Amino acid sequence: MNLPTPKTSRNPAQPVDERMWEAWFNEDGTPNIRIEEMRREIFRRGVSATGTLRKKVWAFLLGVYEWDVNGEERDKSWEVMKRYVRFLYCR
User: Fold this and answer.
1) What is the rounded CA–CA span in Å between residue 24 and residue 33?
2) Are 11 and 47 in contact (CB under 8 A)?
3) Which residues, in sequence order, are bridge partners of residue 82?
4) At what angle do helices 53-61 and 35-45 cross, to 10 degrees?
5) Is 47 left (phi over 0), alpha (psi -120 to 50) or beta?
6) In whole numbers, what is the pLDDT of the chain averaged over residues?
7) Max Cα-Cα span within the chain
């Protein structure tokens, strides 16, 4: 097969960092970009290995947090989920 090797669209040399992540949200925690754009940038660039950004990003990618709500609503849903998990494992 003489097909050329496909070129990747990934650019892990400049991963999404804390500063870029925070720029994607308004002061109240609502996003100012679409979820598709966030996913595209995460999958194309990767996530910085320093700090706790990966923990935040994976919660959005896995659907733990809804994308289109503010920070306060996300905090409330996180507390509810923690109580639910505690209930399941403390039985």
Assistant:
1) 6
2) no
3) none
4) 130
5) beta
6) 88
7) 61
